[in-house]
Amino acid sequence: MCAVNHLTGIDALSDADIRQILTRTLAIDAALEAGHHLDSPLQNRLLFNLFYENSTRTSLSFAVAGMRMGAHVVTVPVAASSVHKGESVRDTVLTLCAQGADFMVLRAGGAGTIDAARKAVEEHGLSTAIINAGEGAFGHPTQALLDAATILKALGRTPETGLEGLTITIVGDLLHSRVAASCAPLFARLGAEVRYCGPGEMLPDQAPQGVASMTKDQKAAFKDADIIMTLRIQLERLSADASVDQVAYRSDYGVTSESLSLAKPTALVMHPGPMNRGVEIDGNIADHPDRSLILKQVAMGVPTRMAVLEFAASL
Ligand code: CP
Questions:
Q1: What residues line ligand 1, using a CB cutoff of 6 Å?
Q2: For the stretch 212-244, what's the b/e string if a residue is b when 16 or more beta carbons lie within 10 angstroms of its beta carbon?
Q3: pLDDT at 287 over 60
Q4: 76, HSE (Cβ side, Cα atoms, 13 Å)
Q5: Residue 99's pLDDT band (cuts 50, 70, 90)
Q6: How far from the centroid of its chain's Cα atoms is residue 234's Cα?
Q7: Which residues are paired to 168 by β-bridges?
Q8: Burial class of residue 75 in the structure, from the number of CB atoms within 10 Å of its CB (0-12 exposed, 13-18 middle, 19+ buried)
Q9: pLDDT per residue over 213-233, tens digit each?
Q10: What is the pTM of this model?
Q11: CA-to-CA distance for 168 and 194, rounded, in angstroms?
C-alpha cells in the first residue's frame, strides 16, 4: 500500500505540514505566473470529485489542479448517482475507491462525514487520500490554506514569518461558516489575532479555538484591522423560522466604504465566495483594485490545491 496523507481538517495538520503546503503553494503560484508548468507528477493517477453540496470554486480548482498535474479527473454526477437509491457516503466512497481512486475530494454536509470516510478507507487497507473540500458548517481546510497563502503573497510575507502581528476580523454568519471554522485556528496558529463579529444569532455561544475576541459591535471589530474577511449569510443553513433583514444587515455588518474606513487605511478585504453583493459587501469594495483580494483568493485556489495534492500523494 502506498503512503498517502489524508487532509481532513486543520487540526489534523502539523505545523510542518502547514509550512510545507504554504511553501509549495507560493512556489507553484510563482511558477504558474511565470508561465512554467509542472511536469506531470500525477500522471495516470485518478482523482474523484465527490460533492454532495454545490460548488464552483472548490470543485473546479481541484479539477484544474489535478489536470495541471497530469491526473485523470472524474466528477461524480451525484444528482444522477445511486445516492438517490439510498447509498450512503461511506459506501459511495468505498465504491469509487474500488474503481481505483487515488484522491477522493469530498464535500459533504454532516459533521464527521469526512473523517468517517477516512476511517472506512483505512479499515479497508486502501491507499486513497481523502481530502476535505468543505464539511457542512464544520470545516473547509483547503479554503483556509488558500486564504492564508493569499494574505502571505499580498503582504510579501513567507510561511516562516506567517501572519504574526496582523489583526484579522471575520464578519458575518460565523455560526454556520465552515470557512471561519478552519480559518480561525489556522490564522491563529500562523500568529494572527482573530476577531469574530456578527449579530448575536450568528455568533457561537463561546469563542472557538483561535478566536481572540467576539463582538456584535462592527466599529470595535473593524478598528485597526489589517484584514476584513466577510462571509455570506447562509440562508440555507438558518432555521426555517429565521429571517434576515438584509438592509439592516448591510447597515450593521456590511463591508462598505464607510465601514472599511474604520479599519487600517491599508486594510484588505476578503470573501471566500459566493457573494451576496449589496448585503455583506458592496460591489465597489468587492471590485476595488487595491483593497479587494477576492479574485486573488480564487486564483490562489489552483496552486493551493496542487500543493495539497502533492502533500496527499506524499510527493
Ligand atoms: N469558497 C467556496 O468553497 O466556494 P464554492 O462553494 O464555490 O466551492
A1: 55-58, 134, 140, 143, 272-274
A2: eebebebeebbeebbbbbbbbbeeeebeeeeeb
A3: yes
A4: 26
A5: very high
A6: 15
A7: 194, 227
A8: middle
A9: 999 999 999 999 999 999 998
A10: 0.97
A11: 5
CB 32 within 8 A of CB 169: no
Minimal-distance CA residue to ligand 1 atom 6:
55
Determine the Cα–Cα distance for residues 182 and 229; give it in Å rounded to an integer. Answer: 13
Distance 235 CA to ligand 1 centre (A): 15
Q: Is the Cβ–Cβ distance between 107 and 51 less than 8 Å?
A: yes
**In this predicted structure, what is the pLDDT of residue 234?**
76
Ligand 1 closest atom vs CA 54: 6
Residue 213 C-alpha cell reads as 475576541
Question: Per-residue pLDDT averaged across 293-301, rounded?
Answer: 98
Confidence class of residue 309 from pLDDT cuts 50, 70 and 90? very high
Query: What pLDDT, on a 0 to 100 scale, did the predictor assign at position 38?
Result: 86
Q: Any idea which of 3-7, 75-79, 237-241, 265-269 has the lowest mean pLDDT?
A: 237-241
How is residue 147 written as a grid cell? 486564504
Is-contact 203 216, C-beta < 8 A?
yes
Span from the CA of 134 to the centroid of ligand 1 (angstroms): 8
